[in-house]
Automatic annotation (TrEMBL):
Key words of the record: ATP-binding, Hydrolase, Membrane, Nucleotide-binding, Transmembrane, Transmembrane helix
Residue ranges occupied by any ABC transporter domain in the UniProt entry: 433-712
UniProt-recorded Gene Ontology molecular function terms: ABC-type oligopeptide transporter activity; ATP binding; ATP hydrolysis activity
SMART domains per UniProt: AAA (SM00382)
Record's protein name: p-loop containing nucleoside triphosphate hydrolase protein
Transmembrane segments: 84-109
Species for this entry: Lentinula edodes
UniProt superkingdom: Eukaryota
């Protein structure tokens, strides 16, 4: 996304194909909004400029047909949810009744009119009829209220059930996607469209409600129309007044400042002062910068720069929507809004003329004017709603299609067929790994991360991959784990192509510690147990893994021990707390909101040091890599000691050395030392290729780059 651009907050979830190119002047209109912002709006087709036509966006209906099989699948899925059809039936009945009420009310209003007419002509009122009609009207209003309430009562559990059903689907998709698929921006967009993160309702529910509402709106229209025509039959100029009111309300619905959200647009800024000002604002609000701001005595400079930028920009130093609002207010009203005003007055004028002509009918005409204008208004609103509903239904159908496509999304890394290992005993000596002329580029990257890499590690060996930052060490490990597949060349495991093995089997046979290890927003116990989900209940195994990873001591010192959450995933909600409230529910209160950081983000994570975090990640790897665990044959460690102190590093390597001969181990590291001296094989990488290969002694003897750096280091300790 372009710098400074806004995501479409609650805007149209467009399902359109194609591309929006701000530089395309034929398609895109550029407007400078104040000194700071540049707005790029898609030019509207000529048809869309005609009032009201924007609602009849035919393009939206084109894809409807393609979506139908997915809608059918949705219906079948909904049918499988417990008691869903029953609730749906009830909801349908209530909506049907609700849709008929306006017509019934209208009919009674017509009756009232007839009573007035008779009263004027005959100077008598049929009291009984009047009472019946009036009480029926009241009954209608009460029925409407009750039905509205019922509709809400039924829709809530229905929506909740449908939402829950699809949340499970969504979780499944999100959990099972592999790295290249998940990282693909198109897939990310597809997922966001299929399962919007900010929506409380599922698209399924919106569609169900939409379709039902569309039906009931159509019924409402037809019934209102038929009653209205009966009422108008006896009213002088009724049709004319109705038409005038109708056109007025249609025009007024086509508002002047058509919301940005219904269009395709983008906004950005290139204004250096505004960008700087925003950066300064962010820097002082972000706690991470506080130490440096204070220690570096930066505040005076920051303050004067901030003031300088504000002085230059003046009123324009504001976020896009604020400036846009101001800008919009300055636009001249549209033609539609200009003719709307006189049109609003016309029914009154017609009525007055008529009243002057026939003074005797004034009371009746007053009543009928009221009835006709209000009915015409309500009729036109219903009609507009119907158009809107049909439009959004086609969007919803397309989103349903997207959702099911996301549910069916297949992973980029194809699964193999052959079980691995053939027999469990074969793993007891480790796994052999061979790269044959492997080249690889990351999906979004143009340059090679590995070029023509070949090596062989035999079973039970300890191999260290050395090299500078970015030389390709981690990439080798990622390819062994089949997070990606090579672009060219072949990787062999136990002398067989890695692609032939079942992915789940292969990954079960290896344990990996990534350099950019993460912590799950779960308890420490779960964080370690996830290393071997099959034994997540085995507390002995978890504590053993924590001991091997060097984490058990500090975990036991934590107040909640293994149940401590490193990052609490659920936040507390509060507002208006008195200032003395420093903690709540046993956790520190976050006053981040005061600094304008937005939201009620809480400080609920336990702060551990980098080394402690790494020990937890190590423990997770040890869940499956202890000596007694025969199902693992390969251990991959990407910079396992980066954050460890020398003692912890020494202890770790000692433990790992014990595994030699029983498991194949591959380390990636920048460090020359104990580990490299003990390695069976060192691969020295530079700029995506292996430049040296051999044991410590062999490489020293060869006198290449490895020997040069080793000797440099040795001199440093002399
Ligand atoms: N996800 C990614 N997408 C695109 N390029 C990547 C990605 N990960 C790594 N690269 C690039 O691939 C090259 C090799 O990266 P790799 O992580 O394998 O290096 P490394 O030797 O492990 O570095 P370090 O010592 O810093 O960990 C680098 O140029 C890096 O910028």
């Amino acid at each position: 996304m372009a710098r400074g651009a806004h995501r479409r907050k609650g805007g149209i979830n467009t399902n359109r194909k194609g591309k929006f190119d701000p530089k395309d002047e034929n398609q895109v209109k550029h407007t400078k909004i104040g000194k700071v912002w540049e707005l790029y709006e898609e030019r509207q087709p000529e048809l869309a400029k005609i009032p009201f036509s924007a609602r009849l966006n035919f393009e939206r209906y084109l894809g409807l047909y393609d979506s139908l099989p997915f809608v059918w699948r949705m219906l079948k899925d909904i049918g499988s949810i417990r008691a869903c059809w029953l609730y749906l039936g009830l909801y349908l009945a209530v909506q049907l009744a609700l849709s008929l009420i306006p017509a019934v009310q209208l009919w009674y209003s017509g009756q009232l009119l007839t009573i007035v007419g008779t009263a004027i002509e005959q100077r008598t009122v049929d009291r009984q009829l009047l009472f019946r009609v009036a009480s029926s009207r009241v009954a209608c209003s009460i029925a409407d209220l009750i039905l509205q309430h019922l509709s809400k009562r039924i829709s809530r559990p229905l929506n909740a059930r449908i939402k829950q059903y699809y949340t499970v689907h969504m979780f499944n998709v999100m959990a099972r996607l592999d790295v290249p698929t998940y990282d693909d921006p198109l897939v990310q967009r597809q997922l966001e469209q299929a399962f919007p993160s900010n929506s409380r309702q599922t698209v399924i529910w919106r569609t169900v409600v939409g379709v039902i509402n569309m039906g009931s709106t159509a019924i409402m229209l037809l019934s209102q129309l038929s009653v209205l025509s009966t009422v108008l039959k006896n009213q002088q100029d009724g049709t004319l007044i109705a038409l005038l009111s109708f056109s007025h309300s249609i025009l007024s619905s086509n508002s002047d400042t058509q919301s940005l959200f219904t269009r395709v647009w983008a906004a950005t800024t290139h204004n250096a002062d505004f960008i700087k000002l925003s950066g300064l604002r962010k820097a002082v609000a972000e706690p991470a910068h506080r130490k440096e701001i204070v220690a570096g005595n930066m505040w005076e400079y920051m303050h004067s720069e901030y003031r300088r930028c504000i002085n230059i920009l003046g009123d324009d130093a504001a976020e896009f929507f604020d400036v846009y609002e101001l800008f919009n207010q300055k636009r001249f009203p549209s033609f539609a809004s200009i003719i709307r005003r006189p049109l609003q007055e016309l029914p009154q004028i017609v009525f007055t003329l008529r009243a002057v002509q026939y003074p005797a009918t004034i009371p009746l005409s007053l009543a009928s004017l009221n009835l006709i204008t209000s009915t015409a208004n309500s009729f036109s609103h219903t009609l507009l709603r119907l158009f809107e509903q049909t439009g959004s239904i086609s969007d919803n159908f397309a989103t349903i299609q997207k959702m099911y496509e996301a549910i069916n999304l297949s992973n980029r890394i194809p699964d193999g067929m052959v079980p691995y290992p053939e027999n469990q005993r074969s793993l007891q000596m480790g796994m052999s790994i061979e790269f044959r002329n492997v080249s690889f580029k990351y999906p979004e990257s143009k340059s090679y991360a590995l070029r023509n890499v070949s090596f062989k590690i035999v079973k039970g060996q300890l191999c260290v991959i050395l090299g500078q930052n970015g030389s390709g060490k981690s990439t080798v490990l990622k390819l062994i784990a089949r997070l990606y597949d090579p672009l060219e060349g072949q990787i062999l495991v136990d002398d067989q192509d890695i692609k032939t093995f079942k992915l789940a089997d292969l990954r079960r046979a290896m344990a990996i510690l990534f350099q950019e290890y993460t912590h799950f927003p779960l308890s420490i116990r779960e964080n370690i147990a996830l290393g071997d989900p099959g034994h997540s209940d085995d507390m002995d195994r978890i504590t053993q893994a924590a001991t091997l990873g060097g984490a058990s001591e500090f975990i036991e010192r934590l107040e909640e021990g293994y149940d401590t959450y490193l990052d609490r995933p659920v936040r507390d909600y509060y507002s208006g707390l008195p200032e003395g409230t420093m903690d709540l529910f046993g956790r520190a209160v976050s006053f981040g909101k005061i600094r304008g950081m937005g939201g009620m983000k809480s400080n609920e994570s336990t702060t551990l040091s980098g080394g402690q975090m790494q020990r937890i990640a190590l423990s997770r790897t040890f869940m499956r890599s202890s000596v007694s665990e025969p199902s693992v044959g390969l251990l991959l460690f990407d910079e396992p000691s980066a954050s460890l102190d020398p003692t912890a590093e020494h202890d770790l390597f000692e433990r790992l050395r014990l595994l030699r001969g029983q498991k194949t181990m591959i380390f990636s590291s920048h460090r020359f030392g104990n580990l490299t001296r003990n390695a069976d094989m060192i691969l020295y990488m530079h700029d995506s290729v292996i430049v040296e290969e051999g044991s410590h002694d062999a490489l020293l003897k060869a006198g290449g780059e490895y020997a040069r750096i080793w000797n440099l280091q040795a001199q440093a300790f002399l």
